[in-house]
Task: structure prediction
Amino acid sequence: ARAYDALTSGIEHLAVAAGFGVKRITLNGQLHATDAAITAALGAGPDTMMLGFDTDAAKARLEAVPWIRHAQVMRLLPSTLQVVIEERTPYAIWQNKGQTYVVDAEGVVLAPALREAHVGLPLVVGEGAGRNAAQLFDQLNSHDDLTQNLVAAIRVGDRRWTLKLVSGTEIMLPDDNVPEALASLEKLDSEKGVLKRDIAAVDLRLLDRISVRLRAAEEAKTQDGTPQADIPTASTKAS
Result:
């Protein structure tokens, strides 16, 4: 075994000396992944023999780097490795248990994040918020007033969302039938201007009504002492 290892090592050194070692690495597609992470994953250097380099294993190692979605590694004889990567796109900032991360649309954690460094990305908070963010923002896509005034989307019990607006108003969404609930809220706002008033919360969780809680306690009480106003609405297909 020692003799075989020595012979193999000798052949590799001869191949490198003959010009079949890795002398040049080209890289395309890099935006966020660091040079150090890519170099470590690729695992090729001046003493690496081109003919013996496992491109499939290098591809798998590169795709294990959080930022890299797909990778392609090709040998260009006599001495060039060509690496092409496709990176994941930052989609949201996910805050959970005191830690903040950049995630893509699938909820894959890409890197630790500072909110100030990603001011253009929405903030989602709570367990499961990262992997469910894309579905929520697809549903909010046609509701510009909400998205433009959104401070954070808070995942509650990994079942539903509460939207926190710039005004401080909280929009409590239901577990399902979210598009219908949002349509009911939009209709109510266009008719009553409910989101322009001093409202602490709008509760869309019930099937047949919207509950509105005013910010000031004295405004929240009706004549019979009920602390909130219930407004019937067709918020789901079931109602």
Summary: DSSP finds seven helices and 13 strands in the chain.
